[in-house]
What does this fold into?
Amino acid sequence: MRYKKETAHFLTSMTRTLEKEILERPDVAEHLVARAYRDLTRIHRFLGDTASVIAALRRDPLPVRRVLDVGCAAGGVLLEIRRKLGVQAIGVDIKPPKTPDLPFAIVSADAVRDPLPEADVAFSMYLGHHLPESDLVGLIRNVGQFCRRFILLDLVRHALPLALFRGFVAPFVCPIVVSDAQVSIRRSYTAPEMARLTREALAGSGARFRHTVAPLYVRQILDINYAPRPHSCPREPVDCQQDAVQ
It folds into this structure.
């Protein structure tokens, strides 16, 4: 019994780090940044992150014509979604990389504070953990001014995904991704933290959300349906529920 309690404490007691990642530095060579983003796009595909967003978009009860990728980086995931679903795509990033020949625009904007391009649905992938709590709350509120739905997919701060990454993913990606991914996991929010911040962001707004955590804590997904704006068509809200393992 004591061993089980000690093991459970080890798995869930990881302190959130505020350490910056290599890709956030301005002095990284462009060819290294491009290689890292290619590897990250492959990781999203391998882990099922991209498929999870595509499945969520396909389940939307209303037509999805335009999709906004918030924090899109080089646009690799958005490109795959555009190919799979045939939607109009647009990206937003605070520091868009130099990515030639993309079939959609990437707008330079701070998604926490700036006006965003309007879309039916927005999604973000691995963005939330980069933000302090106040900015994550601000992001959720700001996206709701320009989209009726927001799918936020991120990592979970837990020892299991960290061990899985080291054993099964790290040997196949570049050194920048090896370093940054481990920092990202330690920098992420736990499931209870993410749920608490979402409730704070949406309090009094009429919005509803669904929060799910994948097996082995490999990802968590917030699926937020905002309350209709005066000029929006009525839509059926998603019931709020917490599926995370506490």
